[in-house]
């Protein structure tokens, strides 16, 4: 097609590339969004429990063991979920 040539008209019986949607891509985006929300939730819970531990230590009070467990488990889980999101993006970009 040269610059002065008009664009081809769209006919309703022939699907155009933008009309064809990949339903797998939509589900992949939904799955990525769920993993991202989980990673953020685990990170927030872990950081809040870490702040509670540090505040209790600063004030010389008793540290509830639940805060320690939440910090020990939530922060590494959040890190692994964020790492999986980065790898997921790399794989997706490689395929396209």
**Number of helices, where a helix is a run of at least 4 consecutive DSSP H or I residues:** 2
Element-by-element helix/strand order: HH
**Beta-strand content bin:** under 5%
Structural class: mainly alpha
Radius of gyration in whole Å, from Cα?
A: 24 Å
Shape: rod-shaped
Low-confidence stretches: none
Total of domains: 1
Major sheet attributes: none
Please provide the count of β strands: 0
Overall mean pLDDT: 86
Question: How far is it from the N-terminal to the C-terminal residue, by CA?
Answer: 25 Å
Q: How much helix is in the residues?
A: over 70%
Protein architecture, described:
With 96 residues, the chain is mainly α. The chain is rod-shaped, with a radius of gyration of 24 Å. The longest helix has 37 residues, at 23-59. The chain has one domain. It contains two helices and no strands. The model has no long low-confidence stretch (mean pLDDT 86). Helix 1 (23-59) packs antiparallel against helix 2. Helices cover 71% and strands 0% of the residues.
Ordered list of secondary-structure elements with their pairings:
Blueprint: H1 23-59, H2 65-95
Helix pairs in contact: 1-2
Structural key phrases:
2 helices; mainly alpha; rod-shaped; about 70% helix; about 100 residues; about 0% strand; single chain
Quick rundown:
By secondary structure, the chain is mainly alpha-helical.
């Amino acid at each position: 097609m040269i610059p002065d040539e008009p664009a081809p008209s769209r006919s309703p019986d022939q699907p155009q590339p933008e009309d064809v949607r990949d339903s797998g891509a939509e589900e992949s985006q939904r799955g990525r969004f769920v993993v991202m929300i989980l990673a953020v939730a685990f990170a927030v819970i872990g950081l809040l429990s870490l702040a509670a531990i540090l505040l209790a230590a600063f004030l010389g009070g008793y540290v509830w063991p639940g805060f320690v467990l939440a910090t020990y488990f939530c922060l590494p889980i959040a890190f692994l979920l964020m790492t999986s999101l980065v790898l997921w993006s790399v794989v997706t970009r490689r395929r396209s």
